[in-house]
User: What shape does this take?
Amino acid sequence: MATNLDVDIAAIESLMGMAGFKSKREAVDAAIREAISWRQQLKALDALGTLDLLVHPRPGALGMDARP
Assistant: This one.
């Protein structure tokens, strides 16, 4: 799907030089995916305070020996 956007060409070219992208399209696609990934990570970090991440398996579970 072709899309026309008014973008900062200098910023795209800078990204191309830093990351070694061969085309503007490749640089923009990577930047979009990275932005999505970054925001997903931030969302996950926000959830860390609301989830009980400690797992307390009962003795003998998962092949673990009971310890005194």
